[in-house]
Write a structure and sequence with these properties.
Elements (H helix, E strand, L loop, with lengths): L1 H28 L3 H11 L15 E8 L5 E6 L10 H7 L4 E6 L2 E8 L6 E6 L3 E9 L2 E11 L5 H9 L1 E4 L1 H11 L1
Parallel strand pairs: 1-4
Antiparallel strand pairs: 1-2, 3-4, 5-6, 5-8, 6-7
Length: 183
Amino acid sequence: MKRIIFYGFLIFVFSIGIGYYYSSLWKSQNPNFLAKNEMKNEIIEKTSWNEEKLSYNASFGLKKNYKECGHSEFQYSELPKEFINMTKDDISKLYSNWNVEEFSSKNLVLSQDIEGYCDEHYVLKIGDDNIEVYKLMGKNKTKFYKDTNISKEYLTSEDLNNLREGIFVYGIKNLNSVIEDFE
């Protein structure tokens, strides 16, 4: 047992000596080895880039703020392919009429302030024979939406007066509820 340990130790010391001998021989044949390594360390520059870019699986949202009514509309969409790998500055330059509200590699939200009312504002008015529905587009601006086919013959005088002035309704559910009340 003592012989095995002795021979193992002897082989270990002998291999270290051979390694040292060959390394000194190699250095003597190539004296510029250390100088080349020092030059490489001087030439190496940091090349990391910290500017954040959109990834292909980022979520994308559009936010529209309507100035007249004060409502906001938020809609998630699929990220357009041309947005992938773009920076915040790239998107700001490309879509100058939109504001970049949120930006990260996984999320993009663009917002825009819009003059006028959102698409949920309606006005009920009396037409020639029937109640008509208009969309409110701005101050004193309306656009015909639909005819309800509810005849004015069956309406009370109070309802007729309210319809002549216009009944303002917000939301399609409320619009349908008001129309049902007149039927």
